């Protein structure tokens, strides 16, 4: 129990503001109109909590939320719920991904309650990759639900305080609901229509697949605005650094929904010298971030820097994506803040960040 005159500890919930669904900083920033940054933490193949914290600390002072993937690519790792439990214990703002591939609606609803009880404020509802592409191709896929059905169920739990069966909940989960979108798979009309279905099902924020084709994203966002979905959804565009031309070619061949124009691969191929391709990959990511930020309706970016997590800080600093603000991280107010070369720092009210 905490008394009113005691300081708020990292794991303590913040007051839920009017019009908000969660007690989290991530939702507060988006609803305040702040350009928001999330990053993806690849769960370890380990039962050691320190392995999670070591990966999270790379993002300290640079991101507003950390996604914990749920068997991404149908590969087995530490569970998303386990990672999120550890992150909330330290005070981080995790986004718990829930894939419909591995669990039925009974297990998933139980996971939602458990996550909310542990202080997880943000859920990303996903259908999930098929098991054939992962490291356990003999596993039995479940797919009792898809992302839209899952959104509907969790929204019912939150707003009607009951399970899908109708049985009452004592305390509903206070969570901010999200889903994924892929603006780069034709036809765009279908992608926008599916996004509208997700909004109607309860999605409030969206994180997209990797963007390497900004012109295609611009056309997608125009349709999003035409449908008024930019007023209903907070859209964070997926970006990430490419390590080499070879890695880019592999990604566009093997990762569903990733479109990488030849011009991007040519830039990587022309980079000569040790480390030149990785440096060029970061420059491409920065260029994309700067262009994406100017597109009306884009509320932030989701950085996916697989095996290049240390590049996130450089990409954010060089792009000036944070406008000088320092996202909260454990112990921020006790540590010296990282130096930022910015022209006009933006300060937010402390209650937005605490």
In short:
With 354 residues, this protein is an alpha/beta fold. The protein has helices at 25-31, 49-57, 80-90, 105-117, 147-160, 188-201, 214-226, 245-254, 262-270, 276-292, 311-319, 350-353, and strands at residues 36-41, 65-68, 94-99, 122-126, 176-181, 205-210, 234-239, 298-303. The protein has a single domain (25-241, 288-309, 319-334), classed as TIM Barrel.
Describe this entry's structure for a reader:
The chain has 12 helices and 8 strands. With 354 residues, it is α/β, with parallel strands linked by helices. Strands 1-2-3-4-5-6-7-8 form an 8-stranded parallel barrel, surrounded by 7 helices. Helix 7 links the parallel strand 6 and strand 7. Helix 8 runs antiparallel to helix 9, helix 9 runs antiparallel to helix 10 and helix 10 crosses helix 11.
Summarize the amount of helix as a percent range: 25-40%
User: How many E strands?
Assistant: 8
Number of helices: 12
Q: Distance between the terminal alpha carbons, to the nearest Å?
A: 19 Å
Label the overall shape.
globular
Radius of gyration: 20 Å
Strand order of the largest sheet: 1-2-3-4-5-6-7-8
Q: Compute the average pLDDT.
A: 90
Element pattern in H and E: HEHEHEHEHEHEHEHHHEHH
CATH-defined topology: TIM Barrel
Uncertain spans: 1-8, 339-354
Sheet with the most strands, sense and barrel status: 8 strands, parallel, barrel
Quaternary class: single chain
